[in-house]
Amino acid sequence: MSEKTLKHKEVIVIQDILGSNKKIAAEIRSKLEARGILTVNFMSSPGAGKTALLEKIADRLKSGYRMAVIEGDIETERDAERIRAKGVPAWQITTGGACHLEAKMVAKILPELPAGLDFLFIENVGNLVCPAGYELGERLRCVLLSAPEGDDKPKKYPKAFTTSDCLILTKTDLIPYLPYDQEKAKKEALELNPRLKVFVTSAVTGQGLDELVDFFIASLRRPPHA
Ligand SMILES: Nc1nc2c(ncn2[C@@H]2O[C@H](COP(=O)(O)OP(=O)(O)OP(=O)(O)O)[C@@H](O)[C@H]2O)c(=O)[nH]1
Ligand SMILES: [Mg+2]
Questions:
Q1: pTM for this prediction
Q2: What domains does the chain contain, in order, with CATH numbers?
Q3: What is the pLDDT of residues 99-113, one digit of tens each?
């Protein structure tokens, strides 16, 4: 088989996978919307602070709302254990090597979600590239960028930023110790996607967490696509 034919077949296989993922994601979205659940997909590089942020969100939501978390990692139950320690139901998906979650993995967990949920947060596998190509049935997609990663990342990894609704800048408490220009990171992300709603946060000092949680609560009340 020629290299050209092989490449063509590869493209067709990838298109099939993405097409079938999109279909399953649409089914998940309509089921969760029908139940009045706001689903949020968190994407970032490994260690940008997704789980730390979810722990803080859990503290803030627990008095008035019910949330659940689906954790995606290559191996271990560690992140789900951290969330359960907050009294929040959590499911761990271990991909065994795949660098992103797919909608079919999330679909398997739907029947186990408790009644009366307000929020479902999905923490994607730590990776700033692959997760961007896979919808999971979320209404909101949030990309996290931590100060230690560097202000040049939005333009280098654009798809995570062009496909997101929110940009959550994390670990701002570390900025005094880093050659990091937060305004540049924000400006370049907004050049890629002017629709991004930007939050400046620190899980250590608590900066920006109330604003972020208020935004999620307001989004819960707002009908989809309003
Ligand atoms: N200084 C500082 N450290 C933080 C902050 N948020 C998280 N960290 C630390 O950053 C490290 C990674 O945090 P995690 O919450 O595990 O990051 P993650 O994105 O969930 O990581 P993966 O799931 O492995 O992709 C931990 O040592 C956290 O304590 C923050 O706001 N400030
Ligand atoms: Mg994590």
A1: 0.94
A2: 3-221 (3.40.50.300)
A3: 999 999 999 999 999
